[in-house]
Design goal:
This protein is an all-alpha fold and about 170 residues long. Helix content is about 75%, strand content about 0%. It is built from 8 helices and no strands. Helix 1 packs antiparallel against helix 2.
Length: about 170
């Protein structure tokens, strides 16, 4: 079934005007991806109005104006969001992880997943064996065994480190 004339004309117009409008909006915004997005959005909005345009160039002007307004609106939202973040969040310098923390994370990575999970939940999150069991669904007896095995593996890991590295961890 053939499409109507208005649809065919709109498709032809899109193929011709899209690249030109993207270049124009790119020049206006300085952001190619943003230009592509807003021109595409403007074409989507124009699709519903395709029968209302005349052949005097108003369609392209309407799409360009709509795309520009979309770009400005997005810019304002981003700027407003940045202002709110600046106002409500202090700019703090965050130190990187300490050598002790790096060593601990490396040691934890050597443990089997379940051992690592229960060691972290018990020792770093301060959860009891019963709380870990309730949270994970694992039997309390298994959790106790995994805690013992995890601690032993960590002790062996740190015992194998050169003395100067152990001083940083301990």
């Amino acid at each position: 079934m053939a499409r109507g004339t208005a649809e065919e004309e709109f498709d032809a117009f899109y193929a011709q005007a899209y690249p030109r409008l993207v270049r124009q909006l790119y020049a206006m915004t300085g952001d190619l991806a943003e230009a592509q997005d807003v021109v595409q959005e403007a074409f989507i909005r124009a699709w519903g109005r395709r029968g209302a345009f005349t052949s005097d160039g108003s369609q392209e002007a309407w799409i360009r104006t709509t795309a520009w307004r979309l770009a400005v609106s997005r810019f304002r939202r981003l700027r407003r969001g940045a202002q709110l973040m600046q106002r409500h969040h202090e700019q703090r310098h965050t130190e990187g992880p300490s050598p002790e923390r790096v060593a601990l994370v490396e040691a934890l990575r050597t443990l089997p997943k379940k051992h690592r999970s229960v060691v972290v939940l018990h020792h770093l999150c301060d959860l009891s064996v019963e709380q870990i069991s309730a949270e994970t669904g694992w039997p309390a007896g298994s959790i106790r065994v995994w805690l013992v095995r995890g601690r032993l593996s960590l002790a062996r890991h740190f015992a194998a480190l050169p003395e100067q590295e152990v001083d940083h961890v301990g």
